[in-house]
Design goal:
The chain has 243 residues and is α/β, with parallel strands linked by helices. Helices cover 44% and strands 19% of the residues. It is elongated and about 65 Å long.
Length: 243
C-alpha cells in the first residue's frame, strides 16, 4: 500500500515493534500499512462515527482477502482515547483534527494520556494553541516536521510523555510566537520551510492590516497591534535566514 506523503511521514515516526492506535482513523490506511509492513504488532483503529469506522473495516477486509488473511485488525467505535485502556499502546496518532479538539481529547483523561509513551499529532488548525496546551500539561514536543498535502502545508508534532514533568507552573501566553512558530520547526530547514514562512508572513500581515483598518488611531498602540508587529518581525528575520 502506498501512503500519501503526510501519512508516510507519520508512519516513519513510528518505531519498529511499537503498538499504536489511530484516533479518528477514517479509511484506516495508516494502520493497514503499518500492519502489512510488519512494523507494528498491534494497531487499533478508532472513530466516533460508525460510517467512518465501517470504511476502515471494509478496507481491512479487502486487504486481507487480497494479501494476508492472518492479520487481525482491531476496530473500536468511541470518543477519542476513551476506547483505549491505560498504557495499552506505545504510540497514539491523532491526525487531521482541529488543534483545540486534540487538546480536548488529550485533556479528557490526563492520567490515561500520560500512560501513553508517545503521540504523533497533526492539527488541522490552531497548532500554536495545541503546543501551548502540551507545554502547560507536561508533554514535550521532541520533533517538528512539515509536509505538503495538496494545497496545504501540514505541521506534524512528535510528542513524548515526561513522567517527571506532570505539571508546569509557568503558563506562557497561548498567543506567543514561541508556540506558533517554534524554533525546532523553523530550524529543520526542510524544502517547505521557506514556502511555509512566506504563507505565514502573508497571513500575519493580513491580520495586522485588518486590525489597523478597524481600529481608531488611539488604539494603534494597543497590545494586540504590538504583538502582531512583533510576530511579523520574527517571521521576517526567519525569512532572511532562509534566503
Amino acid at each position: 500500500m502506498k501512503l500519501s506523503d503526510r501519512l508516510q511521514l507519520i508512519a516513519d515516526e513510528i518505531k519498529v515493534g511499537e503498538t499504536m492506535a489511530d484516533i479518528g482513523c477514517d479509511h484506516g490506511f495508516l494502520p493497514i500499512y503499518l500492519m502489512s509492513e510488519k512494523k507494528c504488532p498491534k494497531a487499533i483503529m478508532t472513530d466516533i462515527s460508525e460510517g467512518s469506522l465501517q470504511k476502515a473495516k471494509d478496507n481491512c477486509m479487502d486487504f486481507a482477502e487480497k494479501f494476508d488473511r492472518s492479520i487481525h485488525f482491531d476496530h473500536r467505535i468511541g470518543n477519542g482515547i476513551d476506547v483505549l485502556d491505560y498504557g495499552e499502546v506505545d504510540v497514539v496518532v491523532i491526525a487531521g483534527m482541529g488543534g483545540l479538539l486534540i487538546c480536548d481529547i488529550l485533556g479528557w483523561d490526563l492520567a490515561k494520556s500520560r500512560s501513553i509513551k508517545r503521540f504523533i499529532l497533526q492539527p488541522r488548525n490552531y497548532p500554536g494553541k495545541l503546543r501551548h496546551w502540551l507545554y502547560v500539561h507536561g508533554f514535550t514536543v521532541v520533533k517538528e516536521s512539515l509536509v505538503r498535502e495538496g494545497k496545504f502545508i501540514c505541521e506534524i508534532m512528535t510528542v513524548e510523555t515526561d513522567p517527571d514533568k506532570l505539571t508546569v507552573s509557568e503558563k506562557a501566553s497561548p498567543y506567543s510566537v514561541f508556540f506558533d512558530y517554534p524554533d525546532d520547526l523553523i530550524e529543520a530547514k526542510g524544502g517547505l520551510t521557506k514556502e511555509y514562512l512566506q504563507r505565514k508572513l502573508e497571513q500575519e500581515n493580513l491580520i495586522l492590516q485588518n486590525i489597523l483598518e478597524n481600529s481608531k488611531d488611539a488604539d494603534r498602540q494597543c497590545v494586540p497591534v504590538k504583538e502582531r508587529i512583533d510576530r511579523l518581525q520574527v517571521l521576517m528575520r526567519r525569512m532572511e535566514e532562509h534566503t
